[in-house]
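seq/struct pair 1
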Amino acid sequence: MSKPYNILWIDDEHNDEALLPFILQAEQQNIILEGYGSFKEGFNALEANINFYDVILLDALFFEDEKSETPNPAGLGSAIQKINELRNKKSFPYFVLSGQTHFTEVTNPILEAFKLRCYNKKKSDDVIELLQTIKAEADMQTDLQIKHENQSLFEVLNDYPDSARDTFISIFKGLKGFDNQFDDQLYFTQLRIILETLFRRANAFGLLHDKCVQVNGNQVNLTESYLFLSGLDTNHYNVNCSITHFPKLIANNVKNIVHTTGAASHTSVVDITQNIHIQAYRKNVKTPYLLYSLALQLMDVLIWFEGYVKVNNNVATNKSYWQDIGYDADGNKYEIAEISKIGANGWASALVNNGTKSIGVFKGDVVSNNLKIGDKIKFTVKESSVAQNITKI
């Protein structure tokens, strides 16, 4: 699995065909260049997604903004100043690459002031050295180390909001000992938002019922979503799924995240200070380890889900497993199951609760409905665990 290096590249000629060999040469080194023509465009992109980029590559001459008519050295000075201003958020290695002789062959005051070397884009040896140096400098950055050490997770996070990646980078930094001071309200909310995104993706693939993600128009009910994907009846929406998507351990992880972070219903309305269990816990245990454990469980859930949807991505097929839950006049739930066995005494059996509970079918009902093994029936069950109100379907 290749380890990518994401480079913010500011060069007014970044789309020029003449630079295509350089771009391809960089890609062969797993260096992905994201080009912008001006200082303003490039640094707007950087600040909007600061943890995505690993290194900054600057041309010596580029536009100040999209309205500029000619490239000039002021853009380079502005870029270097901005990089220094951003150090309190993230420290970036940065390099200068140019084909301009008054930068590559003579002393330039901007480069001299910041003790920078200008690599010559017209010299193959310079380009080779630059690409090697970019990787070497980037490899020393904590953020990139985290992304490379946990590459499976961060590849999955490409399909999630940028804030998800930022959250996990912060948590990994905590695990590495850089910062162990985490706010429950902030980070529990972030974990719930990531889980909400997973549920929205599950709905887009037809794995999760629309009712679970369209509460009051567009909210996600985390508890109902967990129940549906676990093959259990929803509490309020009278729907379930005829197959179980979540394996047992994944279901346990999701349930733990939902209930521990206090998300009894929706993601954005939970006040963790009102969760009496968390507050009681925090009276004696003031460590980040609860957060770490939940985050690590969520990482496994995200990675599992990505593999699952690659195999189960037929929306129509997935929706065919959605079921409405019906009730008789006495409030007994209608079940749908297949006849799994017919005994010598004429009685039959059907399995409910994901195959964990056997329900008896009276021999008279077997005969009157002409039931055979594999037939599907709809029925209600009372305390006797015998099927009643049977309809063959």
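seq/struct pair 2
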Amino acid sequence: MALINHTRLQAVLSMSQQHQPQLIRMISTLLADAEKNISQIQSYAKAQQRQELQQTLHKIRGGYATLGAEDLAHASKTLELSLEQQLPLSETDLAEFISIYRQSCVALQQEIAKLQADIGSGQAELDIIQLYYLLRQHNMQACDLVENNQEQLKQLLTKAVADSFSQHVFALNFSAAAEILQPFLPPEQRSINT
């Protein structure tokens, strides 16, 4: 058993380069829910709500097993079987599971951070002129360009303006988004488009 099966995680992450940002966001959400799930598990165990505890463990096992968190999947399955067979659940078993859960989350977070750094370093500079023309042409590729360059947009436009800009793009209000972007075009481009 391994805390994280890197081969499986890489296979999941490389299934679709196009949808990788959404996949990373989904994994980040899964990781962000960990402490809430741990509180729920502790609450169910304390109240002897065995069926709810079993369902929560099953849900965790499914999500994390897909990402290669083998130790966590194994620990979860062991607890699930104990609950199914009406065996007593010790505090030690529960504490061990929670420890593995937290360690798996940390390991996955590190993998995601490495991947995001790799994506960031491999990313070309955002071509705002191209983005502007895609917006003016109401071309849906503008959505992908904005999705994949959020950090660069925040640096260029400031966070608040970038958030507003992204909202317009994802609401398909390309004209409003193009207006926000226009002042950031190089001067020679700005004069052509006024």
